[in-house]
Amino acid sequence: xxxxxxxxxxxxxxxxxxxxxxxxxxxxxxxxxxxxxxxxxxxxxxxxxxxxxxxxxxxxxxxxxxxxxxxxxxxxxxxxxxxxxxxxxxxxxxxxxxxxxxxxxxxxxxxxxxxxxxxxxxxxxxxxxxxxxxxxxxxxxxxxxxxxxxxxxxxxxxxxxxxxxxxxxxxxxxxxxxxxxxxxxxxxxxxxxxxxxxxxxxxxxxxxxxxxxxxxxxxxxxxxxxxxxxxxxxxxxxxxxxxxxxxxxxxxxxxxxxxxxxxxxxxxxxxxxxxxxxxxxxxxxxxxxxxxxxxxxxx
Length: 299
Hints:
Helices cover 5% and strands 39% of the residues.
């Protein structure tokens, strides 16, 4: 986890492991199974996230023209955050489209900063994440390993200019689609606010960035255990119950408050007496959402 997100604190690691575990036994955290079975993939794979311009919506513009001998001419800024379980991820790649009438004699490098002091520009104390020498075409920052949270953190793209630069040189930056922003390992952002680059659009940035869903259990058929994956679009109470073919309830797998996000729960037939081979149904209820799917126990 630290290899792809070195900013993680001990409490971050504990939170992510617990919130991404596969729930087992009594719904929620319990004395026998704790938070459940550790899920290494979900613990290291970032949740879906939102990108927003520093000025709101799709407006990321800070400057389009250069200034002479500027160590950090701010061009654009973007905010990154996630509201989805476990509310923590790691940005891997950011690729800006770029056109300019400047040359290497005007710009020595493009630098990406973390606006640590949250003042909306690059100043003492802000952190240089990566630098790319001037070249025509896209500006790609890869292997970033930048932590994002449920509160927005801002990245600012700047140009380091030479004494030959002036206001007659312009730089246009764009983020046209979600393929230009990737978190570990291959998570793309929600499509909200894309494309970026316009100064007139505010885009839209709704809080709901995933949909309710109940996935087919895996494996299926199964014996004795299987895993059910489900997604919650809004924070709220979630119930998942298992029924036999005549509609009799045989198990309650989830009966807890859940933050928006994707979760997994295990159904182990050995924990419930007198379950024979056959067809069973599992049902989810959360807010106004409900769904039912069929699974097969094959002993």
